[in-house]
Write a structure and sequence with these properties.
alpha+beta, nine-stranded antiparallel β-sheet, 13 helices, about 30% helix, binds adenosine-5'-diphosphate
């Protein structure tokens, strides 16, 4: 990544002078410790996934200096978090909490409001507080990555338990669940398998949800609901609290596993395939998130830049894609299905036979025998991930473009041929207009599917950034008109996406705003995150 210079200087939060801000930052240093407060006055450097900046979005879609923190503070414990929140309330300074800041494609570590103070929880609050080998649960702090949790299970010899990891294993277990990220084992819906939160509210009080509210409770990680309203939901994809602990279920080792891959020749196979996948997935014959990827992604994940295949303008031509596919061990195709079967061999055989019989109903469908695939084939990375083993190979498709950045369009739809086709067509249309390569992946949850379209762009190319931004905004609007909404989005698209969830005169957003104003009267916590603006900011031109 190129390092953009800082023409706009240090990003000072709105509503406070530079001199005053520097003065009150000293107060924070006094409270938390000199070495744990850093002014962000350096160049906005890039990095890579594992060594990334925590002060801005290194994959910026807007101008690089737009979503930038004024300073970063590193709390060491819950009391520190409370002190930081108290300080922010005194001076009305916006805070932006992150766990590890590796949710690239959705904004990374960047704050929504320029000049916010980033609260980097992960650096010092990174303990695995418990792993229970009988209940199959754990309790973690924000800085625990999938790698760390995985390695700790190995170290303790807990081979009877698995973790679930998303495509990339360097992120925070807690941060990803809060943002409702997903993985690829049967425990892939991270939010649904969490149990219990500890939260510092924007006013500084600490609460524990579920059974954690009962002093001495021994079921905090095994019964998520406790008594009374189930409050966890309001702390996910929101700006209502800073989460300092989270419990999570671990999966029992299924006693064996086996990945499988099928290819399908034609674009039009998408619709009939979805009709086949739906009943198999709902009845758990397909046991994990079913992934159907366009073959261009399979080419991109080989790690070579697009320029190796095509240097013209506009999307890479179909003929080139198919010529390249012929050279791969998969052979020519349009769609690639990655799946996993769990359990001992005889149990797997029963399920895999059904899958085989059903998938072969698509003319030209082929099962790729894994034993024919070289060790560096991407298939083996999917194999690891679906077995809860963290991996980083997924990063390779970012090399598609120089200064490879990515940002996602991720709508939810029913698992039906007609819906898959509608979404695919609108994405195709908008990508063609923008001259961007389309790399869709359909990820089938249980009764719905997430379509994930990652746009890979060169963050140093202003015109490409604009095209990517236009393409995303058009897709969001087109999708909403057809009744599809995003499950998660990048910081710069949050207002637009929140605006599509507007049933009954924006009743949901008005409810969120009422909660926001009650819980965060000074509007200090992550203003604008998920489109929720505190009263002090509303209607003053912050929305984009
Ligand atoms: P990752 O888990 O991929 O490293 P983050 O830690 O940045 O990503 O989490 C994703 C987003 O969720 C953050 O940008 C932030 O808005 C929110 N978030 C993460 N951790 C917390 C937390 N402990 N408390 C409140 N919000 C959080």
């Amino acid at each position: 990544f190129e390092a953009p210079s800082r023409q706009r200087g240090v990003a000072i939060p709105q509503g406070i002078s530079k001199v005053k801000f520097f003065e009150v930052l000293n107060e924070l240093r006094y409270e938390i410790g000199e070495e744990w407060v850093e002014l962000n006055d350096k160049e906005l450097k890039g990095g890579w996934y594992m060594e990334h900046p925590n002060t801005h979005d290194m994959m910026n879609i807007l101008d690089a200096e737009e979503l930038v923190a004024s300073a970063v503070v590193y709390p060491g414990d819950v009391e520190d978090v409370q002190k930081i929140v108290g300080w922010a309330n005194t001076w009305r300074i916006p805070l932006f909490p992150i766990s590890m800041g590796r949710n690239f494609g959705y904004g990374g570590a960047a704050p929504r409001v320029r000049g916010s103070v980033t609260v980097d929880l992960g650096k010092r609050m990174n303990k695995i507080l418990s792993i229970d080998p009988d209940d199959y649960t754990c309790l973690v702090e924000p800085g625990v990555s999938y790698y760390a949790l995985y390695e700790e299970l190995k170290k303790r010899g807990y081979d009877h338990m698995w973790i679930d990891t998303p495509d990339l294993g360097g992120g925070s277990v807690l941060g990803n669940a809060l943002d409702r990220g997903v993985g690829y084992t049967p425990y892939g819906d991270h939010w649904s398998v969490h149990s219990g939160l500890e939260v510092v509210l924007p006013t500084g009080e600490v609460l524990r949800t579920g059974m954690g509210a009962l002093p001495g409770s021994n079921t905090w990680q095994t019964f998520p609901y406790g008594f009374g309203p189930y409050s966890d939901g309001i702390f996910s994809q929101s700006n209502f609290g800073i989460v300092t602990k989270m419990g999570m279920a671990l999966m029992p080792n299924p006693g064996g596993y086996e990945s499988f891959m099928y290819t399908f020749p034609k674009e039009e196979d998408l619709a009939p395939l979805m009709e086949i996948i739906r009943p198999l997935r709902i009845s758990n014959i397909l046991e994990n998130v079913a992934q159907l990827r366009h073959c261009l992604q399979t080419i991109a994940v080989r790690g070579q830049p697009r320029s190796k295949y095509f240097s013209g303008r506009g999307p890479i031509p179909e003929e080139i894609i198919h010529e390249e596919m012929k050279k791969t061990p998969l052979g020519d195709c349009t769609w690639v299905y990655y799946g996993m079967s769990y359990g001992p061999p005889h149990i797997r055989k029963y399920k895999l036979d059904v899958v085989h019989q059903e998938f072969l109903k698509i003319p030209g469908a082929r099962r790729i025998d894994p034993s024919t695939l070289p060790a560096d084939e991407y298939f083996w990375s999917r194999d690891k991930i679906a077995a809860g083993i963290p991996d980083l190979e997924e990063l390779l498709w970012v090399n598609w473009m120089p200064n490879g950045s990515h940002i996602a369009f991720s709508p939810i739809a029913p698992i039906r041929g007609i819906d898959a086709t509608k979404l695919y067509s609108l994405a195709r249309k908008r990508h063609d207009e923008a001259g961007i390569d389309l790399m869709p992946a359909f990820c089938v949850g249980l009764r719905e599917m997430h379509l994930i379209v990652e746009i890979v762009f060169d963050s140093s190319d202003i015109s490409m950034r604009r095209k990517a931004d236009r393409c995303l905004r058009d897709m969001i609007d087109d999708a909403a008109k057809l009744g599809y909404g995003e499950y998660r989005t990048h910081l710069v698209l949050m207002d637009q996406v929140a605006g599509t969830y507007n049933w009954n005169g924006n009743a949901l957003m008005r409810f969120n705003e009422r909660l926001k104003d009650a819980l965060d009267p000074n509007g200090i916590l992550a203003p604008g995150r998920c489109g929720i603006w505190p009263e002090r900011y509303r209607g003053r031109g912050w929305e984009i």
